[in-house]
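Hi support team,

I've been running sequence recovery on a batch of backbones for a student project. Most finish fine, but this one hangs at about 90% for roughly twenty minutes before it completes. I'm not sure whether the input is malformed or the queue is just slow. I've pasted the structure tokens below so you can try to reproduce it. Let me know if you need the job ID as well.

Thanks,
M.K.
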């Protein structure tokens, strides 16, 4: 079996664990951790995770951040956008907090679109994190997410995990997070 198959299998196994309501969002976050080189393979099979979630009698909402940088830049006045893009260092200055707030807003809007009667049984999956690379830290986004959402946040995380420390794309320093890890390794 491939690492992708192992991740799908481990995710399905984890779905059988009852989601506890009332926990902070940091403890209702699942990190689906896989090597960055598997990003395309994982993204091509995201629907399998949604089907597995539905089969476990949970709701599934996907927030795909692929293309979000372009969407954010499209909110700029054309002259300001051209000026910003002409200076790469300036893009990074604009990205924090502008791009962070844009991405967090996308996620929070998805949370708010979930009807309250099914919110506690909803998994909001966050994919396309590679879009954030070089602009903002994943940890910055997760720290700003609305913690009042009672469901689960499932984060497709291209990187590595060592104990509770997560390292995005193997290039950024890690940070400690209380998320539940779901790994792309065979579980015995």
């Amino acid at each position: 079996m491939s690492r992708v198959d192992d991740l799908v299998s481990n995710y399905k196994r984890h779905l059988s664990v009852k989601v506890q309501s009332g926990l902070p969002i940091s403890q209702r976050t699942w990190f689906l951790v896989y090597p960055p080189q598997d990003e395309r393979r994982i993204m091509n099979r995201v629907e399998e995770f949604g089907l597995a979630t539905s089969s476990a009698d949970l709701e599934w909402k996907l927030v795909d951040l692929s293309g979000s940088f372009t969407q954010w830049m499209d909110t700029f006045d054309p002259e300001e956008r051209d000026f910003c893009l002409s200076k790469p260092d300036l893009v990074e200055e604009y990205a924090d907090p502008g791009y962070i707030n844009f991405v967090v807003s996308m996620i929070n809007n998805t949370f708010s679109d979930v009807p309250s009667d099914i919110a506690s049984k909803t998994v909001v999956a966050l994919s396309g994190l590679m879009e954030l690379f070089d602009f903002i830290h994943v940890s910055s986004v997760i720290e700003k997410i609305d913690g009042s959402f009672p469901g689960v946040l499932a984060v497709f995380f291209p990187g590595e995990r060592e104990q509770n420390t997560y390292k995005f794309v193997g290039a950024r320093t890690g940070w400690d997070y209380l998320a539940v890890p779901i790994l792309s390794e065979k579980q015995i």
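--
Follow-up from support: It reproduced on our side and the slowdown came from queue contention, not your input. The chain has a mean pLDDT of 87. No action needed from you.
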